[in-house]
Design brief:
This protein is an alpha/beta fold. The chain contains 18 helices and 10 strands. Strand 6, helix 6 and strand 7 form a beta-alpha-beta unit. Helix 6 crosses helix 13 and helix 7 runs parallel beside helix 8.
Length: 375
Amino acid sequence: MIDRGARRVSRTVLCASVAVSVAAMMAACSSSGGGSSASGGGTPGAPETTNITVTWSAGSGATSPLWLAADEGIFAKHGLNVNVVQSGSTAGATAVLAGKAQIFYGEATSAFQAAAQGSPVEIVGTLRNKNVFKFYVSPSITTAADLAGKSIAISSAGDSTDLSSRSALATLGVDENKVTFLPTGTSTLRLTALVTGHVAGTLLTEPTASQAAKQGMKLILDQTTQPFAGSAITISKSFGQKNPNTITAFIESMEEAVKFLDDPANKDEVLKVMAKYLAAKPTDASVLREYTTYSPAGGLARDPSPDVAAGNAVVQALQAEDPSRFKSLALATVYDDSFTQKIKSAGYLTQLWGDQLNPSPSAAASSPAASPSAP
């Protein structure tokens, strides 16, 4: 994305192959209480493609359903052999377009940007529908107005840190044109830039947000209650058209992993898997913080339908950031809820969650195709 004025400026996890008949998989899944397109407990039909590569970007608890589905054999139970590879958010979406990966699970913003350019990608599910950022500033900033003429660190131009920073400035009444947006990289690098005085503020996620507070940085705005499409399941339209059962099996696997995460009885196992992918120890405070953030009800969606309010928030942010480029962007261009609708119609979510199923109000209230695009 053009940095307007510079804004003035493998790991590979292979799930065990399923070398059993469809009938055997149905019996195995039935005995475990799960359901999938391969098992017969959910959407009917075995996956058309069983060997798939899935890229992921965020090293946070929001990605844990993917890790758990791989390490706990959930993908295998649903008839999938999944190669899980970490990549950047932009690289993940690019890999899907290039056919090097079949699915990208991570930041939704890149899919919206690609769709706006006419690329044949779509979001078929969202699991994190709230913003994850907290806006920290240096101790020298006494009021939001002091940010004028200063620099704030973002990860990269046009990503969620960029869009959320602009949204934060608007909320605080600061003209974004009077602020320099400095692409800096990861949360850790942005925190370093803030603490060392290279920038006056930045958006941070946990655990770096807590680290900022401990080092005397000031929280000026908490965005974590605001809707914003975060962790999304992105595919190419052609792959989805040719492999609908593969996609439904993947989404069902991810939801089963969310349930595994939510169950307190699995805490020790979840911490072990999180620690593995976060390159930490299960007892580290950072790992425990990720667990407590995403394991409670509401941390991740129990209904994976693409969330309308969260998606509209991204559309509005992009249109505010670059009106000429994103003026015609509509939510229906990016969202495809046909897979989740099929899953729900088959009764899979009800079977999986029972009385615990509480669909997101914004997801249930409207289909993306019927939802008006952001102004």
